[in-house]
Amino acid sequence: MCCDKVSGFDANRGRIAFVGDIMNTSQVFPLSEFEMRLLRLQTRMSNAGLDGLLLTSEHDVRYVTGFLTRFWESPTRPWFVVVPASGKPIAVIPSIGAALMATTWVEDIRTWSAPNPDDDGISLLAETLKEILPPHAKLGLAMGHETGLRMPLVDFMRLRNDLAPCEFQDATKLLRETQVIKSERELELISEICAIGGRAFDRIEEIVQVGRPLSGIYRDFQALLLSEGADWVPYVAGGAGQDGYPDVISPATEAPPRNGDILMLDTGAVRQGYFCDFDRNWSIGSASAEARSAYRLLFDATEAGFAAAVPGAPAASVFRAMQTLIDKVSSSGAGGRLGHGLGMRLTEFPSLTATDETELQPGMVLTLEPSLEMAPGRMMVHEEDIVITDEGPRYLTRRAAPELPEIGAQS
Predict the structure, then answer these.
(1) Residue 144 CA: distances (Å) to CA of 11, 31, 94, 174, 238
(2) What is the DSSP letter of 261?
(3) Which domains does the chain have, with CATH numbers?
(4) What span, in angstroms and rounded, lies between the C-alpha atoms of 290 and 17?
(5) Which tens digits make up the pLDDT trace of 6-23?
(6) For residue 174, which of 48, 353, 332 has the smallest C-alpha distance?
(7) pLDDT tens digit sequence for 327-386
(8) Which of 78, 233, 249, 303 counts the most CB atoms within 10 A of its CB?
(9) Helix, strand, coil percent values for the chain (each to nearest 5)
(10) How much is the average pLDDT of 90-95?
């Protein structure tokens, strides 16, 4: 299918003007992918009695349109996509995004000149929604856990008043159920970024040197990820400490790792909009018996979680499989949940906790992330990425070594 090339648009407000035919240039997915996504969404909308769906977050907008840009880092402009009960999505966006949106499969693109704090697309959005919604409509909007409105609250209140008596309903579950099952192409991209991360980890000894600050190792690790093919690296974390590290979210310090330290690096790198999320641990110099034992316990806990991650099982059973091994040496894991969903977001639904009864289904991508508190202020974490298939789980990451690797150990 073809779409049209933008030649210009109303700089103040309105639909963009098209001339000339070019093939759809969205670089990540074929048209059939978006048609499938839309069908799944609209089927669930119908079952929920929704007359329309309003999307405001980067990931939801990208899921239905293919609109991939890092411009979301700017909080200045809101972006809206409307999914009608039938028919294709409608983009209501700042004019700066019109040309890029026109390379996707979206044909109805309505723009305004932004930023305009007095009316930052709200009246245009209201007009669009009134056009497609029946009287007393029910409009879906993500309102639940792990969602964000991404528009000023005062603008949302204005929109709600403009659309009265339209009823806004929480569409979080609907969106989750649609997005949590990954397509074959999505799985290919996640597999690709996992492989990129694995190749960067393989080169760790290129950047870990005696006296080199941890901050430099972090920076060089990001450079390795980019050189191996990552598009960008939104997340790098880790830690270093004697026989374990204090946490896994602190920024890097200027102190270099010392002999006896356990060094951990954790990456959330991106390829064409999809994340990997896994870590690796190393001993600087010869590892102690305690560190080797803790590492092996977490390796075995990961294997136990992997074995439990079968279609039909609840997420909580995967948590319990890992936690049961951890409980033999520690009263609790060090990080709360022991894994989570993965995809367009670094962390997605579901969470691997004792209370999450989400049923695992083929196509779900999860991290397995057992953690162990070895002593107050000392912990270790292991993480791998997997996909649930009809035949059972499959690793997306190349499995870590079963024994703690050593860097610079004396032979």
Answers:
(1) 35, 30, 26, 11, 30
(2) E
(3) 2-179 (3.40.350.10), 184-407 (3.90.230.10)
(4) 67
(5) 433 443 445 554 433 334
(6) 48
(7) 988 755 555 899 999 999 999 999 999 999 999 999 999 999 999 999 988 999 999 999
(8) 78
(9) 35, 25, 40
(10) 98
